[in-house]
Structures are given as structure tokens and as C-alpha cells.
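Aim 2, interim progress. The first record below pairs a target sequence with its C-alpha cells.
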Amino acid sequence: MFIFSKATVFVRSIYFLILIAVLGILVLAFQDSGEYDSKWLTYEEALNESNKTGKMLFIFISSPNCPTCAKFREFFSEEGVMDKISDKFLPVYIKDPAYSPVPVMAFPTFCIGYPGNFDCFYSSSGDLLLKRIGVS
């Protein structure tokens, strides 16, 4: 029979909590990796391209825990959807609202326009979104 001291139990508990924290961080870090092709730009890339071409930005602001956002990520993966959007806009995907260029009140949030003059809105479906931005 093993008898553990209180210090041993405490140290093992700390190691267990650290292990759980590291696993959680790894899950979050790789949760969205590989979901999108090269048609999505970072906000900075889109700003630079917009300054050169005059093209408006289309911003998709998501959250990892949002079920509707997950449906939109699948929708954007469908054949032809990103081609329609890219013809008219510079598509930007922001997976963490902390890095959003606009205040976010709901998920998903979509914005079209130019910096300082974005029209932001919510959409419940891909078809309604495409109609709203004029690319259906």
C-alpha cells in the first residue's frame, strides 16, 4: 500500500492541471488550421490591396465556439462561393474578434466597405448573405 504525503498529492495535482491547460491550448491553436484556401486575406493584406485596386473589403468575423460560424466556414468552402465573393470584394477572415477592426456584437459578423466606412451586419444563412452583398 502506498502512502502519499500532502506535498506529493499537491505537486501531482499541479502537474495534472498544467497538462490539461497545455492540451487545451493545443486544441485551440489547431482548431481552425487548414480550413481555408489562399483566397482569404489578412486584414493588413486586404488594406494594401484595396489601396492599390480600390476594391472593397468583405470581412467575416468569426468565433471558435459559434455554431453558425462553423456553418458559414463550411458554406465558404463550397465550390464557387469564394469566386463570387472574390470577384467583387477582397475577402478577409478574422477568427478572433479581439483582432476585429470593428466592434462585434454578434457572431458571425460580416462587413463590407472600406476602413472607416464599413457596413456591418449579421446573416443567418449563406444565401441571404450572398444576396445582401449583391453576388448571388
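The second target in this work package is listed in the same format:
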Amino acid sequence: MVPVTAPPIPDGAVWISGHRIRAVGPFCEIRDLAGATAGPVTDLGDSAVFPGLVNAHCHLDYTGMAGLLVPPRGFPDWIKGILTLKSQWTDAEFDASWRLGARQQLESGTTTVANIETRAHQLAGLRATTPLRVFSFLEMTGIRSGADPERLLAEAMEVLKGLPPNRGGVGLSPHAPYSTSPALLRAVAAAARKEGWRVTCHVAESESEFDMFMYRRGPLFSWLEPQRPCEDCGLGSPVQHLHRHGLLDSPLLAVHVNRLWGDDAWRLAARGASVVHCPRSHTYFGHPRFPREELTEAGVPICIGTDSLASTRVSRETPATLSLIEELRALATADPGLSPRRMLAEVTVHPARALGLKSVLGELNTGALADLLVIPHAGSTTTVEEALVHHRGPVAATMIGGRWEWVGPGMSDRVPTGTSGGPP
């Protein structure tokens, strides 16, 4: 058992009651504690059990775009490419892509996804197709359409408030500083504070975005200047831009943050923001080194996200899978000095806290939701975290809310499928 918030437990057990964990510890202690009240015992054999992974940033509906966009010369070229591709896709293609991404997440041990949603009219139906805990952040732009910010926000809130109950939650996602207006950022910040919702935003992702807001120059600025008012450019960094318009005053998942300036890291930390790093997307675009040290020194929690397969390098040797474990392996390659324990925290406890679910998700502990993943492991507890980072292919099994929602062929004879009291 790998609780994450405590050392790994050899010959461990987790006692599950309904949707939650009642106790975690050595098997002999849990057996004595449960006594006659214990239900059937499932022996997973030579395995390691982790909390279900929490994906802090994802675009499920772009899963089917894997390999369809050639790695661009510059970030604006990629934006133009994906806008063109999206305009050619049908509702059915987006539906199938979203579902494929959700299935790949489940099979790779992710149980909770902070997903950017672009298909408002399909969202209720899509969320009903998966057992994942989907936190749906509805994306808003408005620059190209010239739509009124208050109307955009009202429409988004109507969609989110009209969704049927779900294992996850909802939030708002003004896309990025360059694709939204200051008025929309201010309106989103005020609405999120009133509703108690989280906000997520792509920010400081590329050098061209940084140049646009710091210096009113660069390829992104040149492309967008005819399409949007640019009085908000040349006034400071993208992070300062979000702060100036109130977005740091709401619980924020700041996605990418590849470029810092001045006191940006301390500004994020002081406002309680979390930063989401997407290793494979980072490599795809060839961004400079992620400023992990500066963020950590300032006290900013770092989470890991998959981003999308539309910004992931693919080849015949490396077929594309939307997997946090693949992101961990890419991170280990890019930053070999990081310990597996630290990386594990960035796909469990850190994103759980960023979503306001500290002690509820991302750890194996009394009272936490019974979300688990299982991988084969016959080694010692000293190598178990590294074993997850280097695991390849689907996990052995995934549990959400006390129910086995994915069971691989190698575990089908051990796991009693369908065990659950239903979703919480």
C-alpha cells in the first residue's frame, strides 16, 4: 500500500466501507481491526496499490487528434492549426474523442480529471458516459467573436448549473490572456468567488505570449493585433496581467507557467494558486526549461497534467495514450534529479488540494474516497514509487468510489468486478 502521505506499507491492506476508506495499514492489523464486520477479502497478490491519480489539466475532446498536427515552428502556428482542425470536426468526432480520452484515463489509473470543456451542448451527455470524477471547466474566449463578456459568462454559468449531479464538479476556464478580454477575466473572477468555484487558465505558456504582454511584440502579437484590442499589452508579464484583472483572487489552477518575470512566482504563491506542468506538451513545443525551482522556492504547489494528445509527439514506436503515468516517465527523463516520491505527490495530493479536496482524494487514508489503482509489483517498498513512474501499458485495475471500474486481463481472476454500493 502506498498512502502517499505516509511511507509505503509492506503486506498492506485497505478496508473499504461503501465509497470511502475506513482504514489502511498492515494486513494483520486491518484484519484484527475489522473483525467480524469485515466483508470479503480481495487478495491482489504481488501488487502495489496507490491512490487514484488526479489529472490537473486535460483536453479529453482532443484525444482523437493525436498525430494530426505536425509539431509547429512556433506556438501561434499550432494555434492556427488546431483552430482549423476543430472547424472541420463534427459533433460525433468530438464525442468519440472525449470518450476515448476518458477510457484511456481510466485504464491508466487516473480517477479524477480537471477537464477543459469546449462542447457545452454535448457536456451533460459526455459526463454521463464515464465513471471518472470529471471536474468540467467550461472554456471561454470571446476575442474572435466579439461577444459581450457578461453574456459569455451568463451562458457558461447556465450550462454548468444545469448539469445533472456527477462525481466531479464544475468550474470556469477563461482560455488564456491573449484569447480573452480583461473584462471577461474580471467577470469570471467575481463569479467564481461568489459561487465558490475553481478557475483554470492557460498562462505564460510560450515565449510569444510573454513577448506580447511584456513588450507588445512577437509573432503572437503580430497575428492577434488586427483581431483584438491590444491596450492590455506592454504592461507586464502574463501572470501580472491575470493578477491585475482579479483572476489570482479566485482559487486558480495556472496551466503551463513556462515563463516567469520579477516576482511572478511569489505573486502566485501569495494568492494560493497552483501551477500545472504538462511534460509531454512542454517537450512537443520545445519550450525552455520549466521554472520548477523558482516556483518551489516561492511555495507554489506544482501539479502534473496530460494536456492533450494534439500536443504530444507520436510515432510508430510510441503510440499516443492519454496517461499521467506517461507524463511521469517523460518528466523523469527531462528532470532526472526529481525523486519518484515528489513526482507522485504531483499527480495525487497536490492536484487534490488544488481542486479543494485535500484528504478526500489523492491519498490512501481514513475517510478518503476509495479511489485506487493497482499495478503488478513484487519488489520492495523502497522501489514501489519508481515502479509506478516506469510502469508501461494499462494498470492492473482501477477503483472509483469503492467500485472496480477497470480490471485488466491479468487481474480478472482476483478482482470481484462490480463491487460497489453505487456512485457517491
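The chain is about 35% helix and 20% strand. This observation will shape the mutagenesis plan for the next reporting period.
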